[in-house]
Amino acid sequence: RHRQRAGKEGQVLHRSKRGWVWNQFFVIEEYTGSVRLTVSYVDSGDGNIKYILSGEGAGTIFVIDDKTGNIHATKTLDREEQAQYTLTAQAVARDTMKPLEPPSEFIVKVQDINDNPPEFLHGPYYARVPEMSNVGTSVMQVTATDADDPTYGNSARLVYSILQGQPYFSVEPQTGIIRTALPNMDREARQEYDVVIQAKDMGGHMGGLSGTTEVKITLTDVNDNPPKFPQSESLPGEEVGRLKAKDPDMGDNGMVNYRLVDGDGMGLFELTTDSETREAVIKLKKPVDFETKRSYTLKVEGSNPHVDPQFLAWGPYKDEATIKISVEDADEPPVFVAPSYTFEVEENAPQGTPVGRVHAKDTDVANNPVRYMIPRYTDVEQFFSINSEDGMITTTRPLDREAQAWHNISVSATEIGHHQDTKVRVNIRVKDINDNPPEFATNNEVLMCESVAPGKVIETVSAVDKDEMAHRQHFTFSLAPEVAHNHNFSLKDNRDSSASIYVLRKGFSRLTQDVYYLPIEINDNGFPAMSSTNTLTIRVCSCDSRDTILSCNVEPYVLPAGLSTGALIAILACIVILLAIVVLFVALRRQKKEPLIVFEEEDIRENIITYDDEGGGEEDTEAFDIATLQKSIKTQRNDIKPELQYPIRPGGRPAANSVDVDDFIKTRIAEADSDPTAPPYDSIQIYGYEGRGSLAGSLSSLESVTTESDLDYDYLQSWGPRFKKLADLYGTKDCCMNDVDDGEDS
């Protein structure tokens, strides 16, 4: 019997023993098969127990077998609709419906699958960035959300990429921050850009779901253009000159219309009429170039639109004038012979490798020499340099195609002695060389059932390479030499840059080995050829009869919701410390050869030891060994080692074969009183002997003052609340003393 005092009334409580068995706590999302969860109370199996289920979804989504405790999910579950269900199971007596145990609560979690694509909730987006911004200037950040579980697998791990808007803008794969990718973007040339951003889950790997959004980016103006006076070489649409024909008639009779009828400048100039002044206005239709042609001739006709037939013979009612237009020279900036340049340079080419040459010339009559330079804001990291005299561009360091495949810079040309310059865009493509080994396209674990049949394909692996793949170039796969002759798995190269992994045997067991590591060599067959060894992780899982994976842990267990990694580490650390203490204690125990609990005589006084073992009374002759008590009293005390040995009084030695234990005890008491090496305090010697005439009464210390509890303790009730406890213990005769059982022997 295990009893303990609880509360002021001395209520006796009994320790409850739980007997529930929890077999599984998760259901795979969208799974259409029958899912079974077992929650049962350990019983004798006689059918007298009935199981009752209550809580979220009980009776509709989850039903329980009242005989076995098996819980079935009746329909597919959506984690995004509800991630977990809290249920309560209880075992009751089938005939009386009385509870056998308190209700037991548990949680069923819905295990996520990748069934939701990323979504941009706030798109489309609008952003503004100043023109001429440096490369890498942040424009804005777009964020997509995924309804899948972010704590399980890669279903909600998003990677951002740009589908439209290159090479002007780029996006950071992990954060979704859009940045400028080209320098020298001029608002006066182009003001708006339409960019399309994609977010893909599964870390961007094959098979992931994706979503897109549009971002309209507008370049804002900065003061990057100085004021200029118009040059003599006018621009299209500018007025060149005016002329007017005189007609003395009034009103409509004096109205004159003008038109160009001849001349070598008819394709370059146009003529309109000013509605207010009735003048002929000559405007430039196309640009003119002093260096190409310095003058043009036009013939203009003026005529009356309203002619009176009576005076038609007095005509003709029109006139012509010849106009000479002279083109004046203007100081123009140099002109590049090409509107833009595109060059190529090999990856990892040494410093000083020529990239290409640009050429500009002065179209003015003076034909001044031209000097070249690369504006630093277009080549921030200074990958290139240019010869200022001949325009040859060279590299300043080896270039890495995988880091940056295109370099877009500008080259400026300026006449010597003049401040006007002109710029041209130069696009430099880094040609790839095979300097990166291939690797697995994905690093996901392969999950394999214990009951997998030999010859079954458990995985098809593919590879990716940071380098560009040449035409008809493909990857080849093979097992690493150290596992080429293993008896578990084999590999077949499919000759299409993929390989299939086959099982060679059956009888896999998680208890024997739950994880297998299969090293695979991948060759890219490039020039020069590059290869690498990648390890495929194969995990053995428990499956049902339909090969549906149930669990991949060595021993299935469920962690409480919200238990962090730090808490797990703390729990494991505590377990290790406790094990270390136990091992140390056992080691010391074996070394000293002493009992697990040692009581020194100097520490035993006034202590009550409860053994929870009731003695047999006077009839019990097996509670002690009388032969041990008959040993010679020459046996020395072991609580202290005496410095001097005094002889024992001869009168205190009992007969060798005496069975008078009473005399033996008296002798030991006299010996202790006369022994100068004994402690100065009373030492209790405990023997399994009750003495003559004993009524086998209680040996509790509560009755140490007198042999019988004949005192009246009712006066304790008047001593106040501080003595309430003592009054409850001693104040009544029928008080139950639970510290020491009646008839206990010590």
TrEMBL record:
SMART domains: CA (SM00112). It holds the Pfam family CADH_Y-type_LIR. Residues 239-249 have a biased composition (Basic and acidic residues). Residues 35-120, 121-229, 236-336, 337-440, 440-558 form the Cadherin domain. One of its GO terms (molecular function) is beta-catenin binding. Residues 222-249 are annotated as: Disordered. Keywords: Calcium, Cell adhesion, Cell junction, Cell membrane, Glycoprotein, Membrane, Metal-binding, Repeat, Transmembrane, Transmembrane helix. Cadherins are calcium-dependent cell adhesion proteins. This is Cadherin 11. The chain crosses the membrane at residues 567-588. One of its GO terms (cellular component) is catenin complex.
